[in-house]
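Could you show me some protein's one-letter sequence and the numbers that encode its backbone in two labelled lines?

___
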Amino acid sequence: MPCSYGAITQVGDCSKVKNTDWESTEKDPILYNSRKKRTNDHLVTATTNTNGGPTELDTFLPQDNSNTNGVTKYKVTKGNDLEAANTEFDPFKNRQNDHPTTNLNTLTHLLKASLGTGILSMPAAFQAAGLALGIFSTILVSIICTHCAYILVTSAHELYKRAHKTKMSFADVAEEACLRGPKWARGFAGPIRQLVLVGLFVTYFMTCSCYAVIIARNFNYVIDYYVGYTTEIRVTIAALLVPIILLVYVPNLKYLAPVSMIANVFMGIGLGITFYYLVTDVPPVSERNLVADISTYPVFFSITIFAIEAIGVVMPLENHMATPQHFVGLCGVLNQGMSGVTLVYMVIGFFGYLKYGDQVEGSITLNLPKEAYAAQIVNILIALAVYGTFGLQFYVCLEIAWDGIKKRFQENARIAEYTLRTIMAVSKVPLQTIIL
């Protein structure tokens, strides 16, 4: 009759073994000497049942069901095997989100994060690269940015299984990869985590500050035309503080999805009107450079990378998905979003430079006729679209800051979180003054 000792099932007479530990085995000289001899001779073997049965650890020979000199054969069931348990853990089925986002919600957020104000500078980027080289280089930059995001997410999915976790931040992935990597990298886990957090926080905090300035300037573009004098941009930024605070009070990404969707609509309409101006009375391609001077090529990369990359929002978006496995893949959310973004960037950049040539401005909307109602609508819509994007960029900073202090405010977590949101929103005003 078989009997069990923890994860080990004995096949044969149970009276010979009291425990699987070496200390207990010493009480039985026959078993102890046999185990010692087999271990020293490296005769411990493992076989797997090809019919899907349990994995068998043959500690002692022979490999039949007989007992020889009191020696017993054991088998370890697969359900109790630690390695098997690791491979069977499904992080997606075990993930719990209070407000999970759908694939469409996630795609909307991704488009909004990528289709930011940088797209308005793509004509200037094409001026620095040329029409032909600009198209090729935009595709190249997009592939690199998408591939980096793909590696990040697929690495996270593998680390979920190894670490038995259902979600990780960008910093968590970096730290866990070092801890489970080669020995020389394990000591860098902590510093790498902090480096990622600091880099992301500074990047997106500064981005939010720049966005507030862009919103104010787009509104002033229209206001100045009607009032007849130049409005102080700092006054406009101060007036925008209350709407910005209300936006950052949106509790999570699920409730922020409608804001992002509306912002996408505004950006789409604004770009549509802008595109109408770009394709009207365009000069021949022969009047523009197909390949620009190599000295201006770095300018193209700086503008395009700023416009396309959205690595900071990748993991927050994946963590809140109801079906995170759909984020990557050939037709996954990531590839769908970045394919559309790349196409729009190339079209705006190509026709913007083709239309205005060396007269192209840093933002293509500044080339539109100021007195035209359509151009004024474009600037208002772009300002509202950037305002909608502000919340998504702010969410990255908020997650980093809140994760660092939330353990200290477990009793009044809600009050502490919204106080932090307010402080972060208000603190951008002095920084915006420095930018100006």
